[in-house]
């Protein structure tokens, strides 16, 4: 008799997972043979399993194959982040940019940025570096991409009611100080997220997620 349980009340055994696959939240195990054919598949993943944080359709695909697939359907908005303080939120913003299938993430300022929050999603996301705000603005103008500054400072329009161009780049600042004056002055638009409580601002990565989703609601074709 098991200690602490009366006779006849033994716990039900936990059902065993199939020998070749784990729960999808933890990835999948080695692929049963015969293996699927095609250049997209990574033999190492087929052999040993795929525990990456990717959607099921990309299981066992190589990283290059995933990026190539994403490149065929990326959205027409980019994301830019001023990087002066090695902000922990930068990685989280990159992860969200990947989730909403942004075209490119632009890092302005310090070349090195805090990748912890990205959870390796930067491997699937195009990332470009710009030395300073002036250089970034010049490149965006040359590419015909309007820059939309996101900061709840005077002069901003409400994102809930503003027109958001389909082709654009959203520019975010650091947690705390927000965008530099140079960035706001050089932008083609200036939006803020309407708030109702007592705090002056919300977390930078949370704000970025709201803004990207606002673009998706207006312009993206939702999957079936």
From TrEMBL:
Name of a matching Pfam family: SpoU_methylase
Segments of skewed composition (Basic and acidic residues): 34-44
Highest taxon in the source lineage: Bacteria
Region (Disordered): 1-44
Ranges for domain tRNA/rRNA methyltransferase SpoU type: 79-213
Keywords of the record: Methyltransferase, Transferase
PANTHER family: RRNA METHYLTRANSFERASE 3, RRNA METHYLTRANSFERASE 3, MITOCHONDRIAL
Name of the protein: tRNA G18 (Ribose-2'-O)-methylase SpoU
Origin species: Curtobacterium salicis
Lineage, broadest ranks: Bacteria, Bacillati, Actinomycetota, Actinomycetes, Micrococcales
